[in-house]
Specification:
By secondary structure, the protein is mainly α. The protein contains 20 helices and no strands.
Length: 467
Amino acid sequence: MADAQESELKALLPTGGETYNGCKLCDPKHWSHRYLFLVMICFLCFGNYFIYDNPAALQDQFEKDMDISNSQFMLMYSLYSWPNVVICFFGGYLIDKWLGIRLSAIIFALIILIGQIMCAIGAQAGSYPLILAGRFVFGLGGENLAVAQNTYTAQWFMGKELNLVFGIQLSFSRVGSTVNMVSMGPIYDWLGQGNGGHKALGAALWVGALFCFISLVTAIIAGWMDRRASRLLGRSSAKVGDEIRLSDIRYFPGTFWLICFVCVAYYAAIFPFIGLAQLFFQEKYLMAQQDASTVNSLVYLISAGASPVFGFLVDRVGRNILWVIAAVMISLGGHTFLAYSLISPYVGMTFLGLGYSLLASALWPMVSLVVPTERLGTAYGFMQAIQNLGLAVVAIVAGSIVDQKGYLWLEVFFCACMSITLMIAVLLLFVDAATGGALNLSAKARAIRHKEIEDAKKEKEKLAIAE
């Protein structure tokens, strides 16, 4: 197996560069060195994912220690999303044209660290505006560091390895989210010696800053490893695949915009819910704070294990829209259980975790089936920007609903979001079928169509050369 991977890789690697005769672990051409690099880039975003849901893990502490309402609490999520409505368009451009992948990863990791330090200092000083400013700074680096991570991955792992590595990378990121959910409460109690207060909250947030510092160190190590590999292999620095051009939107088909609407409506009922769920579980199910945090972590914990499995199934079966519809129905079932029953919240959160994992595996790859390769950068930039716009708005709305109406109405709101998502997904199914699209083809039929398109391109090229 390793020999087959090695042969495939050597066929794809540049032929220039220096000759290396040292140990295989230090040889960029050997699989062991590449997977050592994978460890580095997995830790690259670990701190990012760990601190993103620090507020969710410490919701009760934030609201009591900083004396804030649910609406004010959700501003921490909204202010992370607002800068990414714009920055998603330009992150790849900055990496490609100005900073380079190595320096970009270090700068973005440093920005995230600075943002978390601002949050920790703000909490210790009892200054909520400083915490909000820190979350905004964190948002400036968070999504762009993920772009840098994906760029490293695309250059270092080729062919059949790529999908597996992306799955491992996503799973490890969700481990960071899960560790945050289950650990920050006990860390707060330990550092506050049972008394709590905003100083204990600030001390707990410094733990998040420590993980961000580790991510910064791995960014530096990854940059050194990539520079060394480039010298030995004679390759140029990694680039983001596509430059974003706003003018490309006129070429996007209607199915692309329906995919975007599914994305916004679905994630609006997931991430804001996780942000507010801890107190919901404590109030409705009379759970202790640590038990509530454990339940709240289930979506990420399940995603860590299920995402690669669902990705494999979708690749093998095809029928992406049907998978999306199934994911939305599963998630709607989860919210319905949480809203209208007293069944254990583990059931509803398990449904949400499975639905979340399945939708991510089926939805995002559909963009490449309706948008030409040369415009994918623009398409994914728009999709991420629209998603962040939706999350920024819904975070504020969700906090206001809890303050004014309570958690039952919040769950009614999320059930409505999921119902709208389901209707859009069904509409996407009909539009795709009516236009002869490829979104719901089986994997075998899709492969045949792809081969026919490639053969037609080659024939066209031959005719052009002959003329």
